[in-house]
Amino acid sequence: MYLHNRNTGDDFINLMRTNRDRISGGVVHSFTGTLDELQQLLDMDLYIGINGCSLKTLENIEVVRHVPIQKIMLETDCPYCEIRKSSPAYQYVKTHFQSKNKEKKDPNCLVRGRNEPCNTIQVLEAVAAIKGIEESELAEASYLNSCTLFRLDP
């Protein structure tokens, strides 16, 4: 189950604590919470979804450092939540795709300002750098996490 938690205070944690036994598993999508919230969600054996919104501030980045790779889901939330140039995580992005304004349709380019699934590589690059691990290690862990949560054969 994808769980959306945005500006809920303690309500989300309390609801999950009360109802955790009613779902087989889940990922807290687009996580932007505190270290304390992270620990409470991990204690409930939930996965943590990381995208550009999860990397907007230095405080967010510090929290992402503490997410175990066995609980990370890399995501984009397209068409939103890209890693913007103003993000402190942007310095870690190595892969850039050509983009054009939507009025200049080009099948070989992204639409400027619209996040796309292919930008998951940028989240991977940033999170691996932030955590000080190899991109391949994080990619493998995220893949296996997805297989586990969604009951897919690796």
TrEMBL record:
<dbReference type="Pfam" id="PF01026">
    <property type="entry name" value="TatD_DNase"/>
</dbReference>
<protein>
    <submittedName>
        <fullName>Uncharacterized protein</fullName>
    </submittedName>
</protein>
<dbReference type="GO" id="GO:0008296">
    <property type="term" value="F:3'-5'-DNA exonuclease activity"/>
</dbReference>
<dbReference type="InterPro" id="IPR050891">
    <property type="entry name" value="TatD-type_Hydrolase"/>
</dbReference>
<dbReference type="InterPro" id="IPR018228">
    <property type="entry name" value="DNase_TatD-rel_CS"/>
</dbReference>
<dbReference type="InterPro" id="IPR032466">
    <property type="entry name" value="Metal_Hydrolase"/>
</dbReference>
<keyword id="KW-0479">Metal-binding</keyword>
<dbReference type="GO" id="GO:0005829">
    <property type="term" value="C:cytosol"/>
</dbReference>
<dbReference type="GO" id="GO:0046872">
    <property type="term" value="F:metal ion binding"/>
</dbReference>
<dbReference type="InterPro" id="IPR001130">
    <property type="entry name" value="TatD-like"/>
</dbReference>
<keyword id="KW-0378">Hydrolase</keyword>
<keyword id="KW-0540">Nuclease</keyword>
<comment type="similarity">
    <text>Belongs to the metallo-dependent hydrolases superfamily. TatD-type hydrolase family.</text>
</comment>
